[in-house]
Amino acid sequence: MFQRSFIFSPILSRVVFGRGALSNLLAEFSQLGVGRALVVCTPEQVDLARAIAGKLGSGCSGVFPKAAMHVPIEVAREARLLAASLGADCIVAVGGGSTIGLGKAIALESSIPILAIPTTYAGSEMTPIYGITEGGAKKTGNDIRVLPRTVIYDPELTLSLPVRMSATSGMNAIAHCVEALYAANANPVTSMIAEEGIRYLARGLPRVVQNSTDIDAREECLYGAWLAGTVLGTTSVALHHKLCHTLGGMLNLPHAETHTIVLPHVAAYNAWAAPDAMASICRALGAEDAAQGLFDLAAQLGIPQSLRELGVNQFDLDRVTDAALTKPYPNPRPLNREAIRALLENAYWGHRPELV
Ligand code: NAD
Questions:
Q1: Distance (Å, whole) CA 147 – CA 113
Q2: How far apart are CA 180 and CA 190, in angstroms?
Q3: pLDDT digits (tens, 9 = 90+) for 8-26
Q4: Could you give the CA distance from residue 19 to residue 23 in angstroms, rounded to a whole number?
Q5: Ligand 1: centre distance to CA 254 (Å)
Q6: Ligand 1 site, residue 13, Cβ cutoff 6 A
Q7: How far apart are CA 200 and CA 63, in angstroms?
Q8: E strand or H helix at 343, and its extent?
Q9: 133 lines ligand 1 (CB under 6 A)
Q10: Does residue 96 have its Cβ closer than 6 Å to ligand 1?
């Protein structure tokens, strides 16, 4: 059904997309009007970061290779101090959501621009959302200062992303699109982008799993990831993201895997309350049922489909359910404790999603 009344407030980054897009680095750097970059990355991606620092030449003031999952405050503080002592006027963040998250933590205090070069499909580069972990708790916020000003998407940089991480990171991006479709502040434009994001990711991911060096498939996935990040940045998230944040935070679970496992079950939970969103997902997947289609896609990708496989203890599911119900995100179907507990039980065993 066409939604005739809405508010759309796009937030825009400059996007340079395509094979070999990294060759535009220097031009994009000068377009930003900056001259002293701090390049940030994880320890695993230090070679790529050093190569990028080399391309920047005298425009690079240093490399900080200590980005870590969920942006620990100690790492953020060290990076902020280094950026200040080097007189950095720009952050070049090369990597996945963890690295871009670290860039955001620096920008939050210093207001210096971020040039992001994403190498996964998580989508953080397109959002003004940040998260910093202190004392075991991840605090998140929304601040336009942390939105990367320029994003270089080069599919060649994703060729090295291991197959399992590619698949789960891609399902994480699909989850952004699914929740954007039934978001409280969705509009026809975001819904169009979200459906297209699912279409490209669902088309590309199985081919990446078959052949991780298939650059066409990588390109399609990265395009889908851009679309997914775009809608994540402009719409609100719902029950799925709340459950994943709760599971991840309380049980220290891997981010993308948790998204992959929970998504089909939340789609089943919300199915009758969000029929238009489900129709979009079906069109994008070429499936008859959205929840089953998402479950089948994950099965085809050969990634974990049960929380049990992640080492979750079944006895924790009650307290996860209770925590997920506190400060809930807006969701199309009202939250029902018993049904959400049943949803988690299905996700725990890796059963097919069902109406709970
Ligand atoms: P990640 O950034 O934690 O990366 C996982 C690992 O993969 C790291 O060791 C990294 O170095 C490595 N890696 C990344 N790209 C690679 C490549 N091309 N080749 C080889 N290795 C590569 O994983 P992620 O899933 O991208 O990010 C997850 C984090 O991002 C979570 O903390 C999540 O909360 C956050 N996130 C934030 C937002 C937001 O809008 N703020 C959105 C999505 C995710």
A1: 8
A2: 7
A3: 988 889 999 999 999 999 9
A4: 9
A5: 10
A6: no
A7: 34
A8: helix 337-349
A9: no
A10: yes
SS3 content of the chain, % helix, strand, coil (to 5): 60, 10, 30
Beta-carbon contacts of 63 under 8 Å, excluding residues fewer than 6 positions away, are 38, 39, 40, 41, 46, 49, 50, 53
Task: Give, for 232, the enclosing helix (H) or strand (E).
Answer: helix 215-234
In this prediction, residue 136 carries a pLDDT of 72
Instruction: Count CB-CB contacts under 10 A for residue 338.
Output: 9
pLDDT in tens, 214-232: 999 999 999 999 999 999 9
Interatomic CA distance for residues 256 and 200, integer angstroms: 18
Ligand 1 centroid, distance to 99 Cα (angstroms)? 7
Q: Could you tell me the residue ranges of all domains in the chain? A: 14-158, 163-349
Taking the C-alpha atoms of residue 297 and residue 305, their distance in angstroms, rounded to an integer, is 11
* Architecture in CATH of 14-158: 3-Layer(aba) Sandwich (3.40)
| Structure tokens that stand for 101 in this block | 């998250």
- If you measure from the C-alpha of residue 176 to the centroid of ligand 1, how many angstroms do you get, rounded to a whole number? 15
Q: Measured on CA atoms in the order 177, 183, 185, 186, is the torsion positive or negative? A: positive
* CA atoms of 247 and 312, how far apart (whole Å): 9
Task: Return d(Cα 161, Cα 217) in angstroms, integer.
Answer: 13
Q: Residues 258, 262, 264, 267: is their CA dihedral positive or negative?
A: negative
Among left, alpha and beta (phi > 0; psi -120 to 50; other), residue 49 is: alpha
Instruction: Output the CATH code of domain 163-349.
Output: 1.20.1090.10
